[in-house]
From TrEMBL, chain A:
<dbReference type="GO" id="GO:0000177">
    <property type="term" value="C:cytoplasmic exosome (RNase complex)"/>
</dbReference>
<dbReference type="GO" id="GO:0016075">
    <property type="term" value="P:rRNA catabolic process"/>
</dbReference>
<keyword id="KW-0698">rRNA processing</keyword>
<dbReference type="InterPro" id="IPR022966">
    <property type="entry name" value="RNase_II/R_CS"/>
</dbReference>
<dbReference type="InterPro" id="IPR050180">
    <property type="entry name" value="RNR_Ribonuclease"/>
</dbReference>
<comment type="similarity">
    <text>Belongs to the RNR ribonuclease family.</text>
</comment>
<keyword id="KW-0539">Nucleus</keyword>
<dbReference type="Pfam" id="PF17849">
    <property type="entry name" value="OB_Dis3"/>
</dbReference>
<dbReference type="Pfam" id="PF17216">
    <property type="entry name" value="Rrp44_CSD1"/>
</dbReference>
From TrEMBL, chain B:
<comment type="subunit">
    <text>Component of the RNA exosome complex. Specifically part of the catalytically inactive RNA exosome core complex (Exo-9) which may associate with the catalytic subunits RRP6 and DIS3 in cytoplasmic- and nuclear-specific RNA exosome complex forms. Exo-9 is formed by a hexameric base ring of RNase PH domain-containing subunits and a cap ring consisting of CSL4, RRP4 and RRP40.</text>
</comment>
<dbReference type="Pfam" id="PF03725">
    <property type="entry name" value="RNase_PH_C"/>
</dbReference>
<dbReference type="InterPro" id="IPR050080">
    <property type="entry name" value="RNase_PH"/>
</dbReference>
<dbReference type="InterPro" id="IPR001247">
    <property type="entry name" value="ExoRNase_PH_dom1"/>
</dbReference>
<dbReference type="GO" id="GO:0034475">
    <property type="term" value="P:U4 snRNA 3'-end processing"/>
</dbReference>
<dbReference type="GO" id="GO:0016075">
    <property type="term" value="P:rRNA catabolic process"/>
</dbReference>
<dbReference type="InterPro" id="IPR036345">
    <property type="entry name" value="ExoRNase_PH_dom2_sf"/>
</dbReference>
<dbReference type="GO" id="GO:0000177">
    <property type="term" value="C:cytoplasmic exosome (RNase complex)"/>
</dbReference>
<comment type="similarity">
    <text>Belongs to the RNase PH family.</text>
</comment>
Length: 993, 269
């Protein structure tokens, strides 16, 4: 049984043991606090074989101290002052610094107060085996406890405590080894006070103590040369503890709303979405219509608390102050490593240091850069609309004050958002220790001008980092994908028969058959990716007696089931699209419809909406007809299966023939489209192999292969979409649901053109889509087949994204689809997974007088509103699936990394002052290679010169160069966020750089 | 600032220099106060509680009296100056009522109420200073006040808080520790080891509960020794005083007798 005792404390001691002070709460109330402490005589000195101290703990200090010092011939320990840890932590951490350290409680607490990150480093130091550190709890030992005297600053009190403890150590040692008569007086081990505070040193010497500055001490050590390098300059001049100053505003205040609105109206201010820069957290930009280039914002103050996605009002500086965007990668985490989450006054000391670092970075963003690169530069003066939402974050471990899992105390910690575009969020929570290593959802509450970081609150935990559920949910939340299960009201809209629903037998009077063509006899088949359950489309083709060909595209008749203005319709409109993650599909429509009743499965009768053309053998449209129909698909092929069937010379059945016929037509259609100037763009697409449906552990990643049949389906879908677009635009010129792709402004291509010209001598003609397509075709490097793809990917990134629009809302001349080089386009072919297609179905159905048009689709504002939502959802869904792929690529890499390192070929796509951005085509991922050492950077020629490790000639790396990189997945130790880290392997190994 | 205090540092010291099983200083004052039949002042660390006991006496209203036993009423007053932030709590404050109810429930089975039918025993608890362990200090002081009032109890009641920091249990929490740690308050009968009250306002891991209960019970025994010492010292003083005073009829003996003497004194006046 444990021993329970009562700590007796004489009443008279109260002067020493009780401490009374006043504290100001966050609300400004002043509270009187009374604390007591119990002084004791059993605090261990930590010296081995000490005769005076109890032996309940294992002491670590060698009895003779260290003797490896030139100036101090006697054995000694060092007792460092607080300033040593605050300024010279690198030195103390060095394995070459071997002197036994007595760490005083006073010092430790002071470090804790001044900087938590440093305190955590100190704690790590105490745990390492190479170091001899003994913590002496001087504040609890009766001889060494000090109380603050009248008029004494806390700093002076601590210094006095440190001196008192040093003196105690020396007397304790001499008491423990009393001189024995007839023997020479033993040489006693000494405790030496190590401090850079001159005043403290002088006082110590006056009291007869040994005191020495860090520099002088290190000079006498054995490895002085190496250790002196670690000395930080900061420690030379010691600043006294600042008195708590009132908190200063770090950011300028926003202008009042009325002023902002007036300014925007008058053209003095500009309004736009704020875009953070993912490579440099000190830079952002705002796209405004008044300038062709986005307005650049450099530095924290000019970005003035804007968060990615906010709508802000910007004031543009005069042209003489315009700057070029930075060419350096600035990582928030590494720059602000030692920033402190606690919102107290002593934060400001560190603020200054970091502010200086940031200032240096900002200033380096040269004004010396060529004028052509300069962009309009400005600052944010007002906030039009905050677009804050919930963010998925990780808790930063170093910002924790107490990592004890049972602790219930309220702590202020940093939450690092998963997205690199967002600043860290300051969070107050009582459950911080249990949230470390989890993904959590955080909402931003406010960002005051006096606060460096936004403040937020914890919403809920999503689960352990890297657990699939947590990652999946965090993806969906991060991209704002609605993923709740369908509610009862929605499910009530499904046919009552459930999955037993069938097309009723043919009967002219049956409402189901009214106006429908019976196409059950046609040889219709579907071609889809493997494992596809929601089959939207099926095709057929047959020769006509007149030598022409009849080709048909049959699309699932979703509008038969999803009726306008029902709960199911509203939900589908809100969801906008089905989202495909690697291991999950978030449906737009309930599963019964999506994968069963609407899905054009083989061998069953299904309702369809058909587009049937009469095409000439040259694939010119002779005639087109739209009709609701009933079909029975004969076969559901995968792309591969269809390809094999088509290529198999032994197959001569009608179905195969019809595939061949379709294929021939598709080739001609494609040729026609290309001739018209359609672009063949590329995006990095990879395929994830999953182990099995249950475990869903990724086994490997490979690039997606495109077969001829892919193109077959694509061509006919495009044809159907274009035909439908024409029809509905004719019938409903005001409200037709169309899709367009705006031509990109030529300035978007400037950079790419310049790089191509300088690096490869090729020019890019971007005057029209046809010209671009032609010059992209020219970009071929015979030695490097992937080069063309790379250029295409980069060109794609310069373009705008396609969008849905309402035909009455924009001018007729802007209907065009740039990428497809089609004057008009819509989406009709995937109504199961896209809501815009459902609208197009309804409009087409009304256009062929099959059914009346619901009044909502006659209203321009309604269509605009719905399409706005759909556009946003569409964009988010794309990003979510990309992020999901990235996550799985990461997992696969990790799995591969266990058996050995992963090295892949990569192309340099961008150069920075301190790193390069590479693209790994085999994995479809991008990564940064950072150089720690200084490298030569030639912004003009997009080149960096890396000194080779053994001081040889520098290696030059430029954009489009092929390099080999080693890819690791490493976890950020603080936030547990998985990160893909790349290092160069060839032409030069960057591991040491 | 307060969040920056380490509850238990690596050296095994708590923020006030105690180790995990060390209780704070306790001083007990049992001197009589005013017209109270029994009173006790306990200073436990920086927590200070004064308890006055009146009774057994006739119940204030007939409606409250019970025909076969005495009723116990507890009133708690928290002095506005007892915390750093001056704050007045009314009598109806939920927290105060709860404290009173806990004390009443603890003592109802311990006081031999059946000896005093149709009477009332009133306990007034005044909290003069608080620094954690409010309920235990109140319970301990009530035990002592009841004893000095000469009300027969089946046993002492001793109470103690026990908290858990990570996996180590800590005894006798200060307010700082109470705010941070899950903890439970245990009132037990030191002689039999029976537990009369366990309260917990935070969540505590099930595996830690038995350990906490055991250690808090052990601590109760230590407290018992301390309280007994104080009671004995007081009795001794009284006995000495009586020897010197003019002869008064002594009925019975022991501590119960002392109470009787006082009652007679009162009746004389």
């Amino acid at each position: 049984m444990v021993e329970i005792t009562i700590r007796k404390r004489p009443r008279e001691d109260a002067v020493v043991t009780q401490r009374k002070f006043f504290k100001k709460t966050a609300r400004g109330k002043v509270i009187k606090v009374l604390r007591e402490r119990y002084l004791r005589d059993d605090v261990n000195c930590g010296i081995q074989r000490c005769s005076l101290c109890s032996l309940d703990v294992e002491p670590t200090l060698p009895p003779l101290g260290t003797q490896e010092h030139q100036a101090l011939s006697f054995g000694h320990y060092v007792i460092p002052d607080t300033n040593v840890f605050l300024a010279q932590m690198d030195l103390i951490e060095s394995p070459l610094f071997k002197t036994p350290i007595v760490l005083l409680q006073t010092v430790m607490e002071e470090v804790r107060h001044r900087s938590l990150p440093l305190f955590n480093r100190l704690k790590m130091l105490m745990r390492t085996d190479e170091k001899t550190v003994w913590v002496f709890y001087n504040e609890y030992r009766s001889e060494t406890a000090v109380i603050r005297e009248e008029g004494e600053t806390p700093n002076d009190r601590n210094d006095r405590g440190i001196r008192k403890a040093t003196a105690w150590y020396n007397s304790h040692i001499s008491l423990a080894r009393p001189p024995i008569r007839n023997q020479p007086k033993p040489v006693l081990t000494t405790a030496v006070l190590l401090t850079d505070d001159v005043a403290n040193r002088q006082k110590a010497e006056a009291e007869g103590l040994k005191a020495i500055s860090v520099r002088r001490y290190v000079e006498g050590l054995k490895d002085a040369n190496q250790l002196l390098d670690l000395l930080s300059v900061k420690g030379e001049e010691i600043e006294p503890t600042r008195a708590a100053a009132p908190r200063q505003a770090l950011y300028p205040e926003y202008l009042p709303t009325a002023t902002v609105l007036a300014g925007i109206k008058a053209g003095q201010l500009h309004q736009g979405h704020f875009n953070a820069n993912q490579y440099n957290y000190l830079e952002g930009s705002v796209n405004v219509p008044a300038f062709t280039k986005p307005i650049l914002l450099v530095g924290r103050e000019t970005m003035n608390r804007a968060i990615d996605g906010d709508i802000v009002a910007v004031e543009v500086f005069p042209e003489s102050e315009w700057k070029a965007p930075g060419d350096e990668v600035v990582d928030q985490e590494s720059t602000l490593k030692n920033d402190d989450a606690e919102d107290s006054d002593d934060e400001e000391g560190e603020d200054d240091v970091e502010a200086a670092v940031e200032l240096r970075i900002v200033q380096k963003e040269g004004t010396k850069r060529p004028a052509a690169e300069k962009q309009p530069t400005g600052r944010i003066v007002g906030m039009v609309k905050r677009n804050w939402r919930s963010y998925v974050c990780h808790i930063d471990r170093t910002s924790l004050q107490s990592s004890n899992p049972g602790s219930l105390s309220q702590q202020t910690v940093f939450a690092t958002p998963v997205s690199r575009l967002l600043p860290r969020i300051r969070l107050r929570t009582r459950q911080a220790p249990s949230l470390v290593g989890q993904k959590i959802l955080v909402t931003i509450d406010r960002w005051d001008s006096s606060s460096r970081y936004p403040e937020g609150h914890f919403v809920r935990a999503l689960g352990q980092v890297e657990s699939k559920e947590a990652e999946q949910e965090s993806l969906l939340l991060e991209f704002d994908v609605p993923y709740r299960p369908f509610g009862k009201a929605i499910l009530d809209c499904l046919p009552k028969e459930g999955d037993a629903w069938v097309v009723p037998p043919k009967n002219a009077d049956d409402p189901e058959w009214k106006g429908r063509d019976d196409l059950r006899d046609l040889l219709i088949c579907s071609i889809d990716p493997p494992g596809c359950q929601d089959i939207d489309d099926a095709l057929h083709a047959r020769p006509l007696p007149n030598g022409n060909i009849e080709a048909g595209v049959h699309i699932a008749d979703v509008s038969r089931f999803v009726l306008p203005d029902t709960p199911m319709d509203n939900e589908a409109a809100a969801r906008g699209t089905t989202v495909y993650l690697v291991d999950k599909r978030i449906d737009m429509l309930p599963e019964l419809l999506g994968t069963n009743l609407c899905s054009l499965r083989p061998h069953v009768e299904r309702l369809a909406f058909s587009v049937i053309w009469e095409l000439s053998p040259e694939a010119e449209i002779v005639n087109v007809r739209f009709t609701k129909s009933v079909i029975a698909s004969k076969e559901a092929f995968t792309y591969e299966a269809a390809q094999l069937r088509k290529d198999d010379p032994n197959m001569h059945d009608d179905l195969t023939k019809s595939i061949r016929l379709l294929n021939d037509l598709a080739i001609k259609l494609k040729a026609g489209r290309m001739a018209a100037g359609a672009l063949n763009l590329a995006s990095p697409e990879v395929k994830i192999h999953l182990d099995s449906a249950e475990s869903s552990d990724p086994v490997d990643v490979e690039q997606k292969q495109l077969l001829e049949t892919n193109s077959l389906v694509e061509e006919f879908m495009l044809l159907a979409n274009i035909s439908v677009a024409r029809k509905i635009q004719e019938t409903f010129p005001q409200t037709a649901v169309l899709r367009r792709h705006m031509p990109p402004p030529p300035t978007n291509f400037e950079k790419l053109k310049d790089v191509l010209l300088k690096r490869t001598g090729r020019s890019l003609d971007v005057s029209s889509s046809g010209a671009l397509a032609a010059s992209l075709d020219q970009c071929i490097d015979p030695n490097e087949p992937a080069f063309n793809t790379l250029v295409r990917i980069m060109a794609t990134r310069c373009m705008l994204s396609a969008e849905y629009f309402c035909s009455g809302s924009v001018g007729r001349d802007t209907f065009g689809h740039y990428g497809l080089a089609s004057p008009i386009y819509t989406h009709f072919t995937s109504p199961i997974r896209r809501y815009a297609d459902v609208l197009a179905h309804r409009q087409l159905s009304a256009a062929i007088s099959y059914s009346p048009l619901h009044p909502s689709l006659h209203s321009k504002p309604y269509v605009e509103r719905v399409l706005d939502v759909v556009n946003r959802r569409h964009r988010m869904a794309q990003m979510a699936s990309r992020a999901s792929v990235e996550f799985y690529v990461g997992l696969a890499l990790k799995a591969r990394g266990i058996s050995g390192t992963v090295t892949e070929d990569a192309f340099v796509i961008r150069t920075f002052r301190n790193g390069i951005n590479v693209f790994v085509s085999a994995l479809g991922i991008e990564g940064l290679v950072m150089f720690k050492r200084e490298i030569q950077f030639d912004a003009e020629n997009y080149t960096v010169s890396v000194p080779s490790p053994n001081d040889g000639a520098p290696t030059t790396i430029s954009v489009f160069d092929k390099v080999r990189v080693k890819i690791d997945v490493e976890k950020d130790p603080n936030t547990q966020r998985g990160k893909v880290k790349m290092t160069l392997v060839s032409p030069v190994n960057s591991a040491s750089l | 600032m307060s969040s920056r205090v380490e509850i238990l540092n690596d050296g095994g010291y708590r923020s006030d220099g105690r180790r995990q099983y060390e209780l704070r200083d306790i001083s007990i004052d049992l001197s009589p106060r005013g017209t109270a039949d029994g009173s006790a002042l306990i200073t436990h660390g920086l927590t200070e509680v004064m308890v006055d006991v009146f009774g057994p006496k006739e119940a204030k209203s007939r409606g409250q009296s019970v025909h076969d036993r005495a009723t116990v009423s507890v009133e708690v007053g928290i002095m506005p100056f007892s915390t750093g932030e001056r704050r007045k709590r009314n009598r109806g404050d939920k927290r105060v009522l709860e404290l009173a109810a806990s004390i009443r429930q603890t003592f109802e089975p311990i006081i031999q109420t059946s000896l005093y039918p149709r009477s009332e025993i009133s306990i007034f608890v005044h909290i003069l200073q608080q620094d954690g362990g409010l309920l235990p200090a109140s319970i301990n002081a009530t035990t002592l006040a009841l004893l000095t009032a000469g009300i027969p109890l089946t046993d002492y009641v001793t109470a103690m808080t026990c908290g858990v920091h990570s996996t180590t249990s800590l005894l006798d929490l200060t307010i700082l520790e109470e705010n941070d740690l899950p903890h439970l308050t245990v009132a037990s009968l030191p002689r039999t080891g029976k537990v009369t009250l366990v309260t917990m306002e935070t969540r505590l891991h099930a595996e830690r509960v038995t350990e906490c209960l055991k250690i808090a019970g052990e601590a109760g025994k230590i407290l018992h020794k301390e309280m007994k010492k104080a009671v004995e010292a007081r009795t001794q003083k009284l006995a000495q005083a009586m020897e010197m005073a003019p002869k008064v009829a002594v009925v019975g003996g022991g501590s119960g007798g002392v109470g009787d003497v006082e009652m007679e004194d009162e009746m004389d006046t």
